[in-house]
């Protein structure tokens, strides 16, 4: 029998806590975070499309965090801190990639860029919602 | 249990009550110090900022707040306070250090940040980039994102983001540095101390509204991801040594060349036979997670390539060194990164390198030239500025000195981490690449900093006596914090933006015909935050200003659409403090201009003056 190539070591940082009691937690507790993230996308799109006042903070926070966190949640990173920070970094990266491609292809539209980022986030969050992952 | 002798259900036992009191007592200093420090900064007199920078105006009660915060943190750290309490201290510390200038000053600081606002504004208006206008448009990712963000958020431009940027950026860095530190300090206190000392150690000021601020986050994330998930395990390294090839790679069988372990060096340095035996192991993860994280790493690198000239280059050398040191399991990663970088430079940054090829090639490998432009040429200015330079050098040497001692100490305990050593040293290879306008030393320090601070804390922890460690923590932290305010804000006399200077530029935009030339003595003018493409901006050559007013007149006469000479106190202070011009130099030029008969005054307010040709 061959020795495993990697010495497995538990992650020193706590992973997501499991349920204290037996049985599955209710759907709203299982799906709360993904649902909130999922609904925030159409919300910021609507705010931006309607030119709503005082939309700056929610829109900026969304663009700088949600698309990337949605993608990173899909790949199953157990480390919550790295999931969040990789998500923020990836949100910035996706924003740069989408907007720069738009400029280079001559189809500049800030609203379309926001819609693309919302679509990416929605596509990545939907599977988590369907399986009721926390 | 009921009955006359039973305790009420909700009564606290004395030990629990005292514990709660202790928790509140250890947590309380953070918000108190934050509020007190913030109030002290709000009361500081911005116009009294002199040649020493922000420290000229920081009142004693601000330093008292810093002392309270530091002692409170040390107590919370060594009394094992909860992570949320320690995080609160870090947030308060970051706000008081990296937000100090934003709280004191009435205008967003630092002229280059205003320029970046102008780049984003240009893209938002036109949907295009203009590499012929400025070389930074060849790496426009940060500006295109800012342009999109301001439009969808309903902001007129990115100006509201300037004040928040340093604090937000440093909080993001702190979160990632914490994860990095947990690799070397699985217990909590060491990791939190790394984050705490990182805050004042990061004095270089590259966290303003700029591509570098975001790219440093990319840099941190990529290398922490590599260390967490893609580090080679000890077993893989042993297997490689025994069989002569990596487990997952192709290669010839048989023994590879192995260098003998330099035992005499280890003995001379007082190190054990196996100084690296306690290196961290990679975190276990499934194939999907590993593949996904690698895709994220490549996306971060691609975004970095598209948004900054230097950072992706600065990432390749440490990755290569990690692979050569057998501390990165993805041996194809350097090739992947080089392909992405070369592809972007070849196809999308052609406008830059085709016009700057000489500059890129002549400085490559020229260490002496790089050192001159990065150090020798910058040692000039008034006594206050020279003192700030000295403090920067001492703070830098202090961090590196502690890091060197910490590296030795960790190896002596058998807990040396070669990957961290590599990442602390590899950025120095940038010195052989180019001088980056004389700023390469700042970038080398920045890219090495997170790993240097991890090593520096290894000099302090673990400690035999908790009380000694706590006292050392307070002393080192206070010393670094004091040095931070001089190093970081020592140039504040000219890096701050004066309302009068801004008003003069607004007058120009309101009155000058499009296509006019704007002439200034130095580049320290808050122009180009708007209309970056609509006027000709001409800071005079070498940012040293003219010695003869006829130079100014000749420059202004070249444009038939008209020209304006803008003279502001911000330019004079920069010329004296940074370029070493004699005191009163700017006012003397102003008198020459006014009495020459060649110019006519059209604007004068709050020390700023604007002239046109007579």
What does this structure look like?
The complex is a heterodimer of chains A (134) and B (614). Chain A has 134 residues and is mainly alpha-helical. Helices cover 67% and strands 0% of the residues of chain A. Chain A has one domain (27-131). Chain A has helices at residues 27-49, 56-74, 80-105, 110-131. Chain B has 27 helices and five strands. The radius of gyration of chain B is 27 Å and the shape is globular. Chains A and B meet through helix 2, helix 3 and helix 4 of A and helix 7, helix 9, helix 11, helix 12 and helix 14 of B.
Strand and helix map with partners:
The complex is a heterodimer of chains A (134) and B (614).
Chain A: H1 27-49, H2 56-74, H3 80-105, H4 110-131
Chain B: H1 14-27, H2 29-42, H3 60-78, H4 83-98, H5 100-104, H6 111-126, H7 141-152, H8 159-162, H9 165-184, H10 188-201, H11 211-229, H12 234-243, H13 263-268, H14 287-307, H15 311-324, H16 333-347, H17 350-363, H18 367-374, H19 383-412, H20 418-425, H21 440-458, H22 466-489, H23 492-495, H24 499-511, E1 517-520, E2 536-539, H25 549-557, E3 563-567, H26 569-577, H27 585-595, E4 599-605, E5 608-613
Parallel strand pairs in B: 1-2, 1-3
Antiparallel strand pairs in B: 3-5, 4-5
Give descriptors for this structure:
heterodimer; A: 134 residues; mainly alpha; 4 helices; 0% strand; globular; disordered N terminus; B: 614 residues; five-stranded mixed beta sheet; 5 strands; 4% strand
Major sheet details of chain A? none
Which residues of chain B sit in consecutive blocks of at least 5 with pLDDT less than 50?
1-9, 246-259
- Oligomeric state of the chains present here: heterodimer
Question: How would a crystallographer describe the biggest sheet of chain B?
Answer: 5 strands, mixed
How many domains make up the 3D coordinates of chain A?
A: 1
Coarse shape of chain A: globular
CA gyration radius of chain B, whole angstroms: 27 Å
Beta content of chain A comes to under 5%
List the helices and strands of chain A in order. Answer: HHHH
How many separate helices of chain A? Answer: 4
